[in-house]
């Protein structure tokens, strides 16, 4: 038999080395932005494959935790702002899982979800654009982070619209959310793939017309999403073009 007194310290030392390597990797801006895009893509899996809808909400959780608990360390914001941002991320994850696991009859469980995620995505986009503006040059990781930020707006809008559908059934038509009082939101989550599809239709201002907002609040959320998409693209494209132009100037001056 193996002597545990010999191999346990070795395993512990190996684990500490691995943890240290992961921490050093996560401290790099490029790695953080690439992971943000990866988590965002994980969140989209459930839309294409409804049986894997649980992966979508794991992706949502990873996005919130990565933005607020890991990437926050690279910001130049005041300590109080970072602390509030960290707390908002934890609240957003907690409210999402509370909403998913509660019965549909508890319709107001979606209110904390809608408020926390609306605040989180708005604040996150501002911080991401500020981060892009401080970059010295346009890199592959920067482009991946910009893409993730755009997709993050659509994902958050889909989550808020899904919560709105549970609070006000019939907000979006033609959708038929199950009205079983003992059924949890997660058990009825397949219908939310259609709502998330509609959220991205609004984000891109395509407007296919196959799903329509029927109630006033649903219409306002749709309008806000349609405004946020082009506004984000305009801000990020301006920042990226500015960074690229400044890098060309530095190169020409160097020659």
Cα gyration radius (Å) = 21 Å
The general outline is globular
Instruction: Give the helix tally.
Output: 9
State the assembly state of the protein chains: single chain
Secondary structure: helix percent: over 70%
Query: Span between N and C termini?
Result: 68 Å
Average pLDDT, all residues: 79
Largest sheet, if any?
2 strands, antiparallel
Q: Regions with pLDDT < 50 over 5+ consecutive residues?
A: none
SSE order, as H and E? HHHHHHHEHEH
Percent of residues in β-strands = under 5%
Biggest β-sheet: strands ordered side by side in the sheet:
1-2
The structural domain count equals 1
How many β strands by DSSP?
A: 2
Characterize this entry briefly.
The chain has helices spanning 4-26, 29-43, 45-48, 53-70, 79-101, 110-134, 140-167, 192-203, 216-254, and strands at 172-173, 212-213. It has 255 residues and is an all-alpha fold. The longest helix is centred in the last third of the chain and has 39 residues, at 216-254.
